[in-house]
Predict the structure of Phosphoribosylformylglycinamidine synthase subunit PurQ.
Amino acid sequence: MKAAVITFPGSNCDRDLRVAFERAGAEVVKLWHKDEALPDGTDLVAVPGGFSYGDYLRCGAIAAQSPVAHAIRAHAARGGYVLGICNGFQVLTELGLLPGALMRNAGLTFLCRPAKLEVATADSIFTAGYATGQTLSVPVAHHDGNYQIDPDGLRRLQDEDRVAFTYAPAINGSVSDIAGVLSGNRRVLGMMPHPERAVDPDHGGTDGQAMFASLAGALIGA
Ligand SMILES: NC(=O)CC[C@H](N)C(=O)O
């Protein structure tokens, strides 16, 4: 399995994401925001957390106009896998690969702490290593994690079983406590919590590990 991890100016979780994939047995290639094409054989594009382009305009808005953005869109259009974590989730909504938007946290403060999550569906390559309803502890670190979507869009996400994770209890004002969502073909996942910060006992927990193990396991040889 080959994962391409993208770095924008201001990304700060690209190394952690690379290590999480490598420990799970994936081959990782690094991409810079100015790269216009993915390496041949890329199975999954990973968009890391951080403050791409300083979070100017809106979190993720400038990254969605960067040279590498076209390559991400083309990969998704081909049915490729895409994982966006935190700022990466914001970038994927700005790219139009996932519905909804990430607004300022309801409490107007930056939240940096472990969060309790519930796995809302195990029916995806990203969440297959968990059980639906399982509770996880995964760190969050964001000021714009308040997921919002119009009522029709919310109904569609729920009807199509595309809510991947919810906060339990609520932390940032997200509609229906949504922490992560899947695309219609279930091959794109965006989530605000950081599973790559929970893959080693020294992180204080390993609840993120199953996501990388599931991805690497399913895509090895792919
Ligand atoms: N850790 C992150 O990716 C943070 C995302 C974004 N900069 C925010 O604060 O909401």
In short: The chain has one domain: 2-219.
